[in-house]
Design goal:
By secondary structure, this protein is an alpha/beta fold. It is built from 7 helices and 11 strands.
Length: 264
């Protein structure tokens, strides 16, 4: 099914991350052109099929310049991947307003703003939007109130947008992974400000998904124009347990997450 990506233009935010690197590799392998947007693009090497762009997704002028460059280079936008994301490990009482607002700006507002800029082009191509959310986008997560708020906001926005644009031929996929081991060289620290969602933790609940496997499943779901992808066994279990037995889910997830805060 991946031959449907041939000659398509894919825009990926957070393009310098571990998951994005696999998405880029697999999309280019399927014949697509990719524009990778990130603050740090040093690890990305430009080619005929890859356009790395240094972009701050929280800055409107930066996004506008990037979209203009993508259209000038590739001529269209067929798929938008809202993948840029940051997280934290701190209870709300220890989370500054600056940190909270930064996480919302990157994870949620940045996704909304680039989607607004890309949407006319996506409608013209009957294209696709992919939003990388999290288990924290539909369920509570102890010690990640800002991150969870940003992902809940993403899900509400993109699922509502999906209803608005489906008659214009645009499909929206919301991806909810459990833990993707995209930055194993990093260790998440309590009350240490911003961190990568893929940074290793003392305790991860259930399976850890490799970036390669995650990218494969995401590309397949995108090719099928699915509306939802609960990525990994833990994500699927969390969805149903939270929906059917929310108090039990809350106790289980809280007990696991609290281990991160012991002795910090």
């Amino acid at each position: 099914m991946l031959e449907s990506f041939k000659d398509k233009t894919v825009v990926i935010t957070g393009g310098g991350g571990g998951l994005a690197s696999e998405l880029i590799k697999q999309f280019i392998g399927a014949g697509a052109n990719v524009a990778a947007l990130d603050l740090n693009i040093e690890t990305l090497e430009a080619s005929d099929s890859l356009l790395p762009l240094a972009v701050d997704v929280t800055q409107q002028h930066s996004l506008e310049s990037a979209i203009a460059m993508i259209l000038e280079t590739f001529g269209s936008i067929d798929i938008l991947f809202n993948n840029a994301g940051i997280t934290h490990m701190s209870c709300f009482v220890d989370t500054s307003s600056e940190l909270f607002n930064t996480i919302m700006a990157v994870n949620f507002t940045g996704s909304v703003n680039i989607t607004r800029l890309c949407l006319p082009h996506l409608i013209a191509k009957r294209g696709q939007i992919v939003a990388v959310s999290s288990v924290a986008g539909f369920a509570p997560l102890y010690g990640r109130s800002a991150y969870s708020a940003s992902k809940h906001a993403m899900e509400g926005f993109f699922r509502s947008l999906a209803a608005e644009v489906e008659d214009q031929g645009v499909s929206v996929l919301v991806v909810c992974p459990s833990f993707v081991k995209s930055r194993p060289e990093l260790t998440a620290q309590v009350n240490a400000g911003i961190s990568s969602p893929g940074a290793m933790k003392k305790s991860t609940f259930g399976d850890q998904i490799s970036p390669e496997t995650a990218a494969q499943e995401i590309l397949l779901a995108t090719a099928k124009r699915q509306h939802s992808l609960y990525l990994g066994k833990v994500s699927k279990i969390a969805y149903w347990l939270n929906a059917l037995l929310p108090e039990i889910y809350r106790r289980i997830s809280k007990r696991g997450a609290q281990k991160e805060f012991i002795g910090h």
